[in-house]
Design a protein that fits this description.
- The strands form three sheets. The protein has a seven-stranded mixed sheet with strand order 2-1-3-4-12-11-10.
- The longest helix has 12 residues, at about 180-195.
- The chain has helices spanning about 10-20, 50-60, 60-70, 80-85, 180-195; strands at about 1-5, 25-30, 40-45, 75, 85-90, 100-105, 115-120, 130-135, 140-145, 150-155, 160-165, 170.
- It contains five helices and twelve strands.
- It has about 200 residues and is an alpha/beta fold.
- The chain has a single domain, classed as Rossmann fold (3-Layer(aba) Sandwich), CATH 3.40.50.
Length: about 200
């Protein structure tokens, strides 16, 4: 199985290492041709407005949107969550949102770099205890669509921080920055269940 990682900016090497750890071959995606025959794609943490600009200049916007719309599973972490959301409440007017998962998000919703924090998150359906989550300039989920499954929240009844809709998995935090590979395994399971 070969899974792409959007490799324009952000935590590319960290996700590549995590994918290798779960037995998947990572492929950097920088141009449209890199999308060919992928089982899934990771949109990493980074800076969402910069990633939007680089997606435009690389020619990837249309081809990646088509792949996701046709069922390519995607895992978006932090900035990747913003890119996959249906609405960015405080984005720039031309900021890209693929609309792959029915979420409204606010960039840096938990504060700036100095407000970064770590928490343990209980994840629905995931055994072996909570996931240790690293939040860095994390997006805040303001609303969730009817078909979105909230898998993890920040505390009891708190903000959604891990969500799934069909083949799309998104986290407000950075699972690639810890040694815990359970969310990358979850993404591989999503790919397998969707027959990619």
């Amino acid at each position: 199985m070969e899974v792409g990682i959007l490799a324009l900016q952000g935590d590319v090497a960290e996700h590549a290492s995590a994918l290798r750890d779960v037995g998947v071959k990572p492929r950097p995606v920088r141009v449209p041709g890199d999308l060919t025959a992928l089982a899934g794609i990771v949109l990493p943490g980074g800076e969402s407005t910069t990633m939007s600009l680089l997606l435009g200049s690389s020619g990837l916007v249309g081809p990646l949107a088509e792949e996701i719309a046709s069922g390519l599973p995607a895992f978006g972490t932090c900035a990747g969550m913003i890119l996959l959301a249906s609405s960015i409440l405080d984005g720039k007017p031309d900021q890209l949102a693929f609309g792959a998962i029915d979420l409204s998000v606010r960039r840096n919703g938990f504060g700036r770099q100095l407000d970064s924090f770590e928490r343990d998150i209980e994840v629905a359906g995931l055994g072996d205890g909570p996931v240790h989550a690293v939040f860095i300039r994390a997006p805040l989920v303001e609303s969730v669509g009817a078909h979105v499954e909230v898998l993890g929240r920040l505390g009891d009844g708190g903000s959604p921080v891990l969500c799934r809709e069909g083949g799309i998995l998104v986290s407000a935090f950075h699972p690639e920055l810890t040694p815990d590979r359970r969310l990358h395994r979850m993404f591989v399971s999503i790919i397998e269940e969707r027959g990619r």
